[in-house]
Specification:
The protein has seven helices and no strands. It folds into two domains: 3-137; 141-235, Cytochrome Bc1 Complex, Chain D, domain 2 (Orthogonal Bundle), CATH 1.10.760.10. 21% of the residues are buried. The protein has helices spanning 3-29, 38-70, 76-100, 109-137, 157-168, 203-211, 225-235. It has 238 residues and is an all-alpha fold. It starts with a helix and ends with a helix.
Length: 238
């Protein structure tokens, strides 16, 4: 099972825990007639809250691992995603501290709880929605646009290795074919087809994938033609 699939499954349970914790809080604090026992609601809220916190730490560890591999090569969407995640972690810790140690701030705890739920929803569904839109709008291999014109520039292997480490290593392995966030790229130019799009492995089709990716991969924006030539030179060696 790939790390990306594991992270997706954990994110779904994470969202379910946030929903259970928030719903029990709404029912408990709401002014409408309560049909459930308050003690039961508190128990559900507490259990769901601790489960939510545990999953938040696990997902944060996944995110830290991806960030450490990606270096400075982060897309704007990724920066926004992790900024929101850090905000969520900070607010959740503030809520825990208020409940456990700073009772004078209990009046703001419901507001913090609602903020935690909203941020959780935005982070998970925002990421899932992006991948759904990307998958729905990108055309399949047989109707895709013509491959990009291969660059005639001479690539530098060392520079390409650094570019891969900064822009690609967060999602792809270079030394194995296992799935990371994206497919492993070992032996890419010795394959008959690209792992996701199914297009033939040529310099043009790899360039097309970098500039106008198939499905969920972000485009490699900000790279010059020389950068692309350097990256291709490295990809041919792995």
């Amino acid at each position: 099972m790939s790390p990306f699939l594991i992270k997706t499954i954990l994110a779904l349970f994470f969202l379910m825990a946030a929903l259970a914790s928030s719903f029990s809080m709404f029912v408990l604090l709401g002014k409408t007639e309560k049909k459930a026992d308050p003690a039961t609601l508190r128990r559900i809220h507490r259990i769901a809250g601790w489960f939510f916190g545990l999953l938040l730490l696990v997902l944060a560890a996944f995110g830290a691992d991806i960030l450490s591999d990606a270096g400075d090569g982060l897309s704007p969407r990724t920066v926004i995603h992790y900024t929101l995640a850090l905000g969520l972690l900070a607010i959740f810790l503030l809520k825990l501290l208020s409940v456990r140690f700073f009772k004078q701030f209990l009046r703001i705890v419901p507001t913090l709880g609602m903020t935690v739920f909203v941020l959780s929803l935005v982070i998970v569904l925002g990421s899932a929605g992006y991948y759904a839109l990307r998958s729905g709008k990108i055309s399949p291999p047989d109707t895709a646009a013509a491959p990009a014109k291969p660059t005639e520039l001479q690539g530098n292997l060392e520079t390409g290795s650094r570019l891969f480490a900064g822009r690609c290593a967060g999602c792809h392995y270079a030394d194995r074919e296992d799935q990371k966030t994206g497919p492993g790229l070992k032996g890419l130019f010795r394959r008959s087809s690209l792992p996701v799009s199914g297009r033939p492995v040529t310099v043009g089709s790899v360039l097309q994938q970098l500039k106008s990716p198939f499905r969920s991969m972000p485009a490699m924006t900000g790279l010059t033609e020389q950068d692309l030539a350097d990256l291709l030179a490295y990809l041919k060696t792995i």
